[in-house]
Design a protein that fits this description.
about 25% helix, alpha/beta, single chain, 3 strands, 3-stranded parallel beta sheet, globular
């Protein structure tokens, strides 16, 4: 089959149990990173794609990424 992976802010992904997935605390609309934060978006995307190197199923992987505080 075709290997798949996904990223999510939480929600129902824990109930769906995809074969590979990363979770962030970034919230809806910013699953891959805060707007205009290209470095964060790249980190989340690369971490999510890196899961493809492993045989599934994998436990959900929580990334240490948060939405920056608004001053």
């Amino acid at each position: 089959g075709v290997a798949t992976t996904m990223t999510s802010w939480g929600g129902v992904v824990s109930l769906v149990r995809p074969p590979r997935a990363t979770l962030t605390r970034l919230g809806r609309g910013a699953t891959l990173g805060a707007p205009h934060n290209h470095a964060q978006q790249r980190r989340v995307l690369l971490a999510t794609l890196a899961l493809l190197a492993w045989d599934a199923p994998l436990p959900l992987t929580t990334l240490n990424e948060e939405r920056p505080a608004i001053p």
